[in-house]
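Weekly puzzle thread! Below is a chain. First person to post its structure in token form gets bragging rights.
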Amino acid sequence: MSTSTEKEKKHFPNPFAAVKDGLTMLRELFIVSVLALLLLWPGAINNRLQGAGFVEADVAGFKWKSAQQAVQKTGEAQQQIEAVKKDTEETIKKVNEIAANATNPEVKKELETLKSSLNDSLDTTKAAETTLQATRQVQENILQAIRPNVTATVGSWGVVISTDDNLEAAQHEVNKAKGLGQTHLNL
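Winning reply:
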């Protein structure tokens, strides 16, 4: 037999469970909304995240990384490969100099083996450099396609000279320019 207390419990659920279920539902709705935004407006979301200072995110198993950061890292890798290539070329020159002065046939043979190995490394480095250059170009093209108007204005500047009859009219023009995103303005 059920007591009156058990009947009351069946009619009135635990308030904490209801709050927990509501929060879980809100969280799931938020995740679905974020995924929908990422799928519908990836460029706008990318710009918004970058504008907020984010360069990497992980949402519901989907990883996002700034394309600009990837281009930067590719550029850094390109510089490192160039340095390795240069060092390898200099080492080959030194090995050639030593081989020219060596009189021992065993040393000459060992130096030729070393030179061959260095040449193979140099060829591999050049191939990697070519691939990296192509990859960076693709990344830059993608960036340009995603944000054509943003990348075109990065680092740009200009000078505007205008005459107005009074300070109020000039201030109006300054405020108008600030509304368009210009930040360094002087009267």
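Puzzle host: Confirmed. Bonus trivia for everyone else. Residues 16-65 form one domain.
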